[in-house]
Design goal:
155 residues, 6-stranded mixed β-sheet, protein histidine phosphatase activity, Phosphohistidine phosphatase
């Protein structure tokens, strides 16, 4: 069994013309740090896939600050307008190529984070708070997943 954690970035600056450049607010940095510590206490991510957008990169930086990650990749497929089906196919390919990595963390955006959960566990499409983390158990042999819970920061 593998664990897949799907995390939305922390609170970001208001919408701008260049959505990709929006940074985390101070509250967003605190949210990301809180959830990075929660991840460390409950799951040690081996691998991290992160959107190229600034706010996701800043959220991932908090995770890396508190967790040792052996595989890291910027993934252009998990941007807000990305195709969740394609992204999950890519994730499953990476998992099969790296069988020693048991816990995968994806840091992305609404709405794709909800669609990613639904692709893995059809019928489960949670709404993520900023810096929320969905926990999914994944059986790589059967390619079936179970959505366990979503955890949100207290901030």
């Amino acid at each position: 069994m593998k664990t897949i954690l799907i995390m939305r970035h922390g609170e970001a600056e208001p919408m701008q013309a260049d959505d990709a450049s929006r940074a985390l607010t101070p509250r967003g940095v605190s949210q990301a740090s809180e959830m990075a510590l929660w991840i460390k206490a409950h799951y040690q991510p081996d691998a991290l896939l992160v959107s190229p957008f600034d706010r996701a990169q800043q959220t991932a930086a908090q995770v890396i600050k508190h967790n040792e990650v052996s595989y890291f990749e910027v993934c252009k497929d998990i941007v807000p307008s990305g195709d969740a089906r394609f992204a999950i196919d890519y994730l499953e390919t990476l998992m099969s190529l790296n069988p020693e990595l048991d816990t995968w963390l994806l840091v992305a955006h609404m709405p794709i984070v909800s669609y990613l959960v639904d692709q893995l566990s059809p019928g489960d499409m949670p709404i993520f708070t900023t810096a929320g983390v969905a926990v999914i158990q994944y059986d790589e042999k059967t390619r079936r997943a179970s959505f366990l819970k979503i955890v949100s920061p207290s901030l």
